[in-house]
Amino acid sequence: MKKKVVGLGEVLWDLFPGRECLGGAPANFAYITTLMGSQGIVASRVGEDSRGIEALRKLEELGLDIDHVQTDRDHPTGTVNVHVDGNGQPRFEITQPVAWDHLQWTLDWQHLAETASAVCFGSLAQRSETSRETIRRFLKATPPGTLKIFDVNLRQSFYSSEILADSMRLAHIVKFNDDELPKIMSLSRMPHKDELSSARRLIEEYELELISITRGGRGSLLVSKKSSSEHPGFKVQVADTVGSGDAFTAGLVHEYLHGASLDLMNEVANLVGAWVASEAGAMPTPKRGALEHSLAEIR
User: What is the CATH code of the structural domain delimited by 4-298?
Assistant: First the structure.
C-alpha cells in the first residue's frame, strides 16, 4: 500500500518571461513525492477558468491525484510573476486574491485528512483567514500517526509571527532556508547566534521532531532532538531554482516515512533538489521515464 502524502495549499502558474509553468509549493511537493513512489495528492483550489482547467489537466497528466482539488467560480486560478537573475535565483510577485485564498473545509477533505500518512503545508496559503482556518482544521482532523510538515515560505508580506508560531506548534518537521532563519528567530523573539543553536532552540520551544535548513547550492543542515547532519549539496548547472526546495522537502519526507537516518535523508533530499534545480520549471519530467536515471546523472 502506497503512503498517502498530501500537499495542502496553493496551486498556481509560475509566469516566466515567454513561458508558463505549473507550480505552487504543495503541488511541487506532491509531484516529486509521486515520482519517489508514494501517492502524492494535491489538496488545493483553482478557478473555473482556462488556467484552472489546464492546471487540472496537467496535474493529472503528471500522475497526480486531482480528486481533492476544489474549483471556484468566483476567483481566478493563482499566478505568480517570476523573475530569474543570472544565478538562477527567482524573485516572485504573487497575485491576490485567487482561488487558493478560499480553501473550503468539506466532508471530502475531512476523509482525506483522516487517511493521510503525511501532510505538507506552508505559510503562503495561510495569507487569507479563510484558507488559514481550513488548513488548521485539516491538520487537526488527521490521526495521531500522521506526519505534519511545515514548509516556511516568507514571501512578500504574506506571513506574521502568529502564523509562524501556530504552524510550528502544529508540525512535527519544519523546513526553511538559511535566509529565513534569522527572520524566524526575530519574529519568535529569540536570539540568533548560529544555525545549530537556533534550530535546537526552536525544537525545544515548539516540541518539534526535526528542523531542516537549506543553504541553496551549499547543501543543508538537519537537526533533530538528539543529533544533526550536514550535507554539502551537489554541484549542478542551474537552470532555475524554482521548486528545488519543494523537491528537497519531498525527498526528506519520503525518507523520513521509511525510517532513514538523518544522513540518508539529507543525501536524498539534496539529490532530488539538485535535479530539479538543473531542469527548467518546478515539475520536470525524469529522463528516460525514471527518476533514478536522472538522479544517477547528478551523482
Answer: 3.40.1190.20
